[in-house]
Amino acid sequence: MTKVVTKYKRHPTMRTLTLLMTVTAVVAAQQPAAPKLPPMPANVIHERDIEYSNVGARVALDIVRPTGLSLSDRLPAVLFIHGGGFRAGNRESYLAQAARLAGRGYVTATASYRLAPRHQFPAAVEDVKAAVRFLRAHAAKYNIDPERLGTIGGSAGGHLALMLGLTAGVAEFEGTGPSPDHSSSVQCVVNYYGPSDFTQSYQKSVDAAVVLPMFLGGDLNNNRRIHQTASPLNWVTPRAAPTLSIHGTEDNYVAFEQSLWITTRLVDAGVPAELETISGAGHGFRGADAERAEARAFAWFDKFLKTKPAVRRILVSDHGPKGEIVAMEWPTGKVLWSVPNTRGHDVQSLPNAHTLFTIGGQKKVVELDDKQQPVWEYSEGLEHPLAAQRLANGNTLIGDARTGRVVEVTPDKKIAWKYESPEITGMRMRNVRRTAAGTTLIAVEAVAQLIEVDRDGKIIWSWQAPEKEKRRLYMGRRLANGNTLVSLSDPGEIVEVAPDGKVIRSIGGANLEIKMGWASGFVELPGGNLLISDYTGRRLLEVDPKGKVVNELRTGPRTIASVEYIR
User: Fold this and answer.
1) 21 domain residue, yes or no
2) Does the pLDDT of residue 352 top 70, yes or no?
C-alpha cells in the first residue's frame, strides 16, 4: 500500500501566529509562578506591593497590621526578609507568619530585594536598609513606633537581618535609596540559620560553591576581601542589636556553627544574644520545630520591642571643633539640643532641666534654663575656668586652671570659700569635684596626681598615678563606699582607688578588650554602670561594674571632655 503524503505551504499569517504562540509559551515557562497568597485572618489588614525603593530595580513590600487602629496608635514593627540563596525567593513566603505576629499587636512588613547574579552584594543589604528607612519615614501612616523596629529573616534573609542589626550607620551599606535622613537601625534581630562567615561557608554547604560566587562576584580564592566584608561576623561591636539565632544541628546548607560563631562573638562584645539549637533539624523548619522556632522568635520581639524602652539622656561638653554643649539620647546619640561653649570643658545637669557649663575662652561659667536661655553666670576674677559644679547648698564650685584657684561662690556671686596654690597654676589643673564630706578633689593633670583638700585648705589625701611623666589625670569622683574613681590617659584608664591608695579596679589600661586613648570625663549611671568619654578615641563607652562594654557610641568629629547624666 502506498502512503500518500500531502504537502502544503503554510500561510504567512499562520506561521507568525504559531511562532508567537511558541515564544509566548517559552517566556511564560521562564517566569516564576504567581505566588499563592495565604488567607489573612479577620483581625489584620494586608496592603500589597508598596514600592519602597527603585535604585537599579523596583523593590516592594507588603504591610500587615491589626485592624481597628486609630491615627495616634503606634505599634512596634518587624521587617521580614525572605531567603532563597540571594538569587531566588519571594516576600510572600513570610506572609502567614507576618500575619500571626501582626495579630499579636505588631505592624509587620515583608520585603523583596534585588537578587543575584544581576545585582550582587551589597545591593540586597542596601535594599533592606532602604526598607527600614521607608518604615520610619512612613511611621505615622502605618501606625509604627519608629523607636521600636525589629527584623527577622531566614537563610539569605537571616544574613541580611544580621547585617541590619550590625551595621547601623555604616555608610558603605546605606546605598542611595529614599529617605536617607532616617535611620536604618533596628532594635533587635531574629536570625533563622543565616550565614555569618562566608569565608567558612564552602566547607559544610551543599550549594555555597554555586550560590556565593553569584552573590559576591567570585569565589573565595578570587574574591576573599568581599567574602570578609559581607560576613556579619566581622561587623560585631557593642552597639549591635540584641540578636536571637535559631539553627538546626543537621543543616546541610548553612552549617550550625555559623550561628554559634555569631552568637559567641556578640556575647563577648556585651550584646544580648542567644542561640536556640534545634537538634536534628535541617535547613528550614517543619512541624513542631517550626512552632518552637516561631514561639522563640515572637518572645524575643516581645522582650525587646513590646515595651517602649526608657530613654536615657546625657549632656556632653564637646571640646572639639564644633565647640558645643550637647544634650543627646543614650545610647542612640540622637541630638536633642545644643548650644555653643567655645570649646569649653565641663558640664553638669541641674534640677528643673537646667544646665551648668564652663566657657573657658570667654572666662565665665553659665547656667541655662530648660529653654537653654542664660539665667546666671559668673566671671569675676576668672581667667580660664575648666570645671564647675553646683553644690547641694546652692553655691557653685569653680576651678580656674590658669590662675590656680578653686572658688566656691554663692548665687549672689560672693566668694564663700577658696583654695589656691602655685602647684596648680599655669593650666596644670583640670577638674575639681566636692565630696559628700565637704572636701574638694582637685585633678593636677600635669603630674597625674589627685589631691583632696579640706575647708582649711590642707591636703588631707592624695594619690599619685604611676609613670607620672607619661600620663595625665583628668578627673576624680568620690564613691559612696569611700573609694575614688580616677580617669587617666596614655593609656586611657579608669581606676578605683581605696583610701590606702591601692587600685582595686581598673577599666581600660592594659586591658586589650577596652583600649582607650585618654579617659577624660565619666559619670556613674543608675544601676552602677559607668559612662566614660574616650577623649582622643572620640567615643563614649558604657561599661558595667566588671568593665565589660555594654554600649558604645562613636562621636565622629566631637572630642568630648566631660559627660553628665541628665537626672
Assistant:
1) no
2) yes
Whether the bond into 146 is cis, omega within 30 of 0: no
Domain identity same for 145 and 85? yes
- Residues 151 and 283 occupy one common structural domain: yes
53: domain range? 44-306
Considering the domain architecture, whether residues 150 and 229 belong to the same structural domain is answered as: yes
The pLDDT-based confidence of 319 (bands split at 50, 70, 90) is very high
Question: Given CA atoms 363, 368, 372, 375 in this order, what sign does their dihedral have?
Answer: negative
The CA distance from 487 to 475, in Å, is: 5
Same domain, 358 and 451: yes
Give tens-digit pLDDT for 92-125.
999 999 999 999 999 999 999 999 999 999 999 9
Pairing, β 503-508 against β 484-497: antiparallel
pTM for this prediction: 0.63
- 300 and 333 share a domain? no
Is 25 part of any domain? Answer: no
How, if at all, do strands 144-154 and 75-81 pair? Answer: parallel
Contact 78, 149 (CB under 8 A): yes
CA distance 384 to 468: 24
Q: Which of 288, 306, 324 lies at the terminal end of a domain, its last residue?
A: 306
Cα dist from 271 to 133, 134, 307, 543, whole Å: 23, 26, 19, 12
The three state secondary structure string of 203-224 is HHCCCHHHHHHHHHCCCCCCCH
Q: How many domains does the chain have?
A: 2
Query: Could you report the per-residue pLDDT of 8-35, keeping only the tens digit for each?
Result: 333 333 333 333 333 333 333 333 455 6
Task: Please check whether residues 222 and 321 belong to one and the same domain.
Answer: no
| CATH code for position 417 | 2.130.10.10
pLDDT at residue 330 is higher than 50 = yes
Q: Indicate if the pLDDT at residue 395 is higher than 70.
A: yes
Grid cell listed for 406: 578653686
| 358 in Cβ contact with 381 (< 8 Å) | no
- Average pLDDT over every residue of 286-314: 92
Tell me the C-alpha to C-alpha distance, in Å, between residue 442 and each of 260, 315, 392: 49, 22, 18
CA 381 to CA 15: how far, in whole Å? 102
CA angle 95, 98, 102 (to 5 degrees): 135
- Please state, rounded to an integer, the average pLDDT across all residues of the chain: 91
State how far the alpha carbon of 83 is from the alpha carbons of 61, 88, 96, 411, in Å: 15, 7, 15, 65
Domain assignment present for 144: yes
The cell numbers describing 521, all together, are 570625663
> 486 and 467 in one domain?
yes
